[in-house]
Amino acid sequence: MSNAKENAALSSIAASIVITLGKGWAGLATGSLALISDAAHSLLDVAATTMTWLAIRAASKPADDDHHYGHGKVESVAALVETAFLFLLSGAVAIEGIRRLWEEHSAVNVHWLAIVVLILSIAIDSWRYLTLSRIAKETHSEALAADALHFSSDLINSALVLAAFGASALGYPQADALVAVGVSIFIAIAGYRLAKRTLSTLLDAAPSGLASQIKKLVSEIPGIVNVDEIKARQAGSDLFIEVEVSVARSMSFDRVGALKNAVISAIRSEFIDAVITVTATPITLDEETVLERVIIIAARRRIPVHHVTVQEIDGNLSVSLDLEVDGKMSLSDAHTIASQLENAIQEELGAETEVETHIEPLVISSLIGHDVDEARRANIARSLIENALSSHTITDIHNVRVRATEHGLIVNYHCRVDPNLEVTLVHEAVDQLEHRVRKDNHDILRIVSHTEPLK
Q1: How far apart are the C-alpha atoms of 60 and 5, rounded to whole Å?
Q2: 3-state helix, strand, coil in the chain (%, to 5)
Q3: Which segments within 162-292 are labelled E, that is strand?
């Protein structure tokens, strides 16, 4: 992209030099102020396109420690300088044109070579305008857009000078001065348009309609609660977009990350080269249950909890839960953690909320284990099968594995139950079976069951 812009700028320099030399010679040969002013405008284009080329080279430098957003605005500064040149040229041409209008006679010698120069100039200006406009649009280059504007003004100026030649040949010599004044007005208008656009970029004005377009794209993504803020600014060919969205605080970190990537992809579908930053703010949703809020509070503190029970008693909430801490932790430290969690829940749900925590041991570190001998495994498997028979709920004990660790035995097994039973009843039956088996085998640390529906 940078090479394309630089090549376009270099070709503009060459075209401007050729046009300036041709118009300058023709203007001096004919004495036409309109043509001389047009040649001066083209001379300005030589300086402007050279400055554009230098600006594009500087703007293509990557971001560094002192310029976090790159050097793209160098192009805007170059465009602003070109605007100042346009206004100066406009004033000079207008003053000279008005002065000649007050003269009694202003001779213009129309020469066929001058007409050829003007026609060639119009052809070159048309080609350069179309080429620069296309590349400026593709690369979002303000400097090339300013160049294209210069060549479009040259195109119209040359056409007006041809008209002045025709008027002079028909006996209206002052038409040359009138066209010069018209050219100066056109240059001033072109400069105003360029200045307005360039200042908008330098002042970080958001491109028109962009915010509403981005909001529509982002709002359609499932999981986005609200689009809070959109900031966008152009720096040369780079478009920087910052989006702040609200998401449910119950959403996992992985899901939030995927959602942010979805936002970036949606914006990139319309703005391919944009530099996009997405910030996701977790918020409490109206439909969020008390149970979900308690689990979120514990998760933020990385405290494992289970058996969370929420009750409403005489209009007040009562929350009870099992809290797991390192089994080797002192009761004092464990109680501090439990108290901090209780306080956090009350801050969230209200000071009048009753909170009770039951502290349980949890082995934090990974356990290193090995399979027990077959006789030991078979003995525990038999205990599971025999005790399951008395439950009248759990059947088909299979895939029994027993591993020994430094803290005790870990037992894993699969079983089957009636698929129509409620999960609560199944859980109670599994708990009762676990208590019976551990009563027969005191060295068991944990029993993990995998319950499957009976076929």
Answers
A1: 10
A2: 55, 20, 25
A3: 226-235, 238-248, 275-283
Strand order in the sheet with 238-248: 226-235, 238-248, 275-283
Q: Which domains, and CATH codes, for the chain?
A: 2-202 (1.20.1510.10), 210-283 (3.30.70.1350), 290-362 (3.30.70.1350), 370-453 (3.30.70.1350)
**CA separation for the pair 104, 68 (Å, rounded):** 61
pLDDT at 82: 67
Q: What is the pLDDT of residue 171?
A: 66
> pLDDT: is 47 or 327 the higher one?
327
| Helix 73-101 and helix 175-202, axial crossing angle in degrees, nearest 10 | 160
Quick one: pLDDT band at residue 1, thresholds 50, 70, 90?
very low
Closest by CA to 322, choosing from 346, 341, 300, is 341
Tokens of 378: 């078979």
How far is residue 195's CA from residue 97's CA, in Å, rounded to a whole number?
24
> pLDDT tens digits, residue range 140-181?
666 666 667 666 767 776 777 777 777 766 666 666 667 767
What's the Rg (C-alpha) of the chain? 40
For 354-405, what is each residue's pLDDT tens digit? 999 998 887 656 778 899 999 999 999 999 999 998 888 999 999 999 999 8
Tokens of 346: 């009350």
Q: How many CA atoms lie within 13 A of 447 on its CB side?
A: 26
Encoded amino acid at 274, one letter: A
Place of tokens 């570190």: 365
